[in-house]
Write a structure and sequence with these properties.
The protein is mainly alpha-helical. The protein has a single domain, classed as Helix Hairpins. The protein is built from two helices and no strands. α1 packs antiparallel against α2. The longest helix has 92 residues. It is rod-shaped and about 135 Å long. It starts with a helix and ends with a helix.
């Protein structure tokens, strides 16, 4: 009887130690998991920052290209207006060979205008898409920062709890 009572007491004491230790072990595991989550959030934040900067560079490059294309369009329009004035002069003077050359120049300049217009519109479309990506990346960055701060608060609270548990033992 004594032996069974002693073994039962020992078993109960060992179980209590295991439960107390597993609770501390579980707290440590939770702390490690929260640290891992926080580090993953930091990686997400860094990735979103890089992505945001890349999208900004792309957008700015597209806007510069669109500006250059618009400048080319304006220059080609000036050339077309000059060629039309020369065409009228050649037709008035009866110089058909020069008039045909001016018509050819006008067609080439109009073709350049249309090409530049398509390029400008494509660049503006790309800039719009890049701006949409920038807004999306900002939103992701904001959410990742919130998650990161939440994980930091959880880590601090769990460290505090572990420290209190150690003091009370």
């Amino acid at each position: 009887m004594r032996r069974s009572l002693f073994s039962l007491t020992f078993l109960l004491l060992a179980a209590m130690c295991v439960f107390a230790q597993s609770d501390t072990t579980q707290d440590r595991r939770d702390l490690a998991k929260d640290r891992h989550d926080r580090n993953a959030d930091q990686r997400d934040i860094n990735h979103d920052r890089r992505d945001l900067n890349k999208d900004r560079r792309d957008r700015n490059g597209d806007l510069r290209d669109a500006h250059r294309d618009q400048r080319d369009i304006n220059a080609d329009r000036r050339d077309v207006n000059k060629d039309r004035a020369e065409l009228r002069r050649d037709l008035r003077n009866g110089n058909t060979a020069a008039a045909n050359a001016e018509r050819r120049d006008i067609r080439n300049d109009e073709r350049d205008i249309n090409k530049d217009r398509r390029d400008r519109n494509a660049d503006l479309r790309d800039a719009h898409r890049d701006q949409r990506d920038i807004n999306h990346d900002r939103r992701d960055l904001r959410h990742d920062r919130v998650d990161h701060n939440k994980d930091n608060r959880e880590i601090r609270a769990e460290k505090r709890d572990l420290h209190k548990d150690r003091k009370h033992r």
